[in-house]
Amino acid sequence: MLDTVRLKILVTADEKGTIAGTAQALRYTPSAVSQQLAKLEREVGATLAIRTRTGIVLTTEGQELVKRARDILRRLEEAEQAVADVGQLRRGAVRVGSFTTAALTLVTPAITRMRAEHPGPRISLADVEPPGGHDDVLTGGLDILVSHAYPGVPLPEVSGLLRTPLMKDAFVAIVPARDAKELGRGPVTLERLADLPLISGRAGDVHRVAFDRGFERSAAEPRVEFETRDYAVTLALVAAGAGASIVPRSLVRRPDPGVRVLPLEPAEHRTIFALHRETSRNPALFAFLKFLQDAAAALSGATGTAVTARH
Length: 311
Description:
- It is a single chain.
- The chain is α/β, with parallel strands linked by helices.
- It is 47% helix and 23% strand.
- It is built from eleven helices and twelve strands.
- The protein has helices at 4-16, 19-26, 30-44, 60-90, 100-117, 134-139, 177-183, 190-193, 206-218, 231-239, 283-303, and strands spanning 49-51, 56-58, 93-98, 122-127, 144-149, 161-176, 188-189, 197-200, 223-227, 244-248, 259-265, 269-277.
- Strand 1 (49-51) and strand 2 form a beta hairpin.
- The longest helix is centred in the first third of the chain and has 31 residues, at 60-90.
- It is elongated, with a radius of gyration of 30 Å.
- The protein starts with a helix and ends in an 8-residue tail after the last helix.
């Protein structure tokens, strides 16, 4: 069986073209390189390289062996990496940042899967409200961030990060049950919704920016009587009959009996995505990302929203 160390020396000699260059690249002495090449030639029973005044030139046999040696060495590197990946999946760590809704609907199922299938890595979770968290991922404070993008709200521009869309979360109207009969079952327009007292976030909140943008495009005049950034408070106010609101569909999978959920016309959505460093090589991170994608696919099926492809 051929010695892989000698094969690597031969491949490097082909790349560098000299004994001295090969020795420098591999941190050997020139005499050690010459000795190992000579031993390899004895092993194969053929001359592999011809020494010249300017360096070395591979023979036909040497060129054929180098071609096959490159593939052998690549496969060995892949095998070593696969073993290392298994080791990291048994140990390692994944530091997750997420906004509250995604922590409930996506991150928690992903953690459950991770602990069942890869119990070794340590998983931690930090509460991060969008648009925060990008710098934490970039500097290594977080390994992965689950965040969202609302219509009309620009995302932070940070290079070196890879964004993976998880799902589209459609906006729906939620109205008190007593008002639902007047609105019917079909999609409700913003013009009709504007006839009701409304609940929304405070000025500057991402939800309020998207809310105002929608009404501006419709030319309707909304009557916002309650301002809160807490969706739980919004749902409670609607259930109490205080007013109507517009929320992401994932928040009202099991609405209160006092709340009716109606599709919006025109349709809009927010995008939920995961963010990690482009240079990350953490196998536990990618296993967790796959579980996030599975949870998003399941949630999309339950809410009727579409899953986007990774890019």
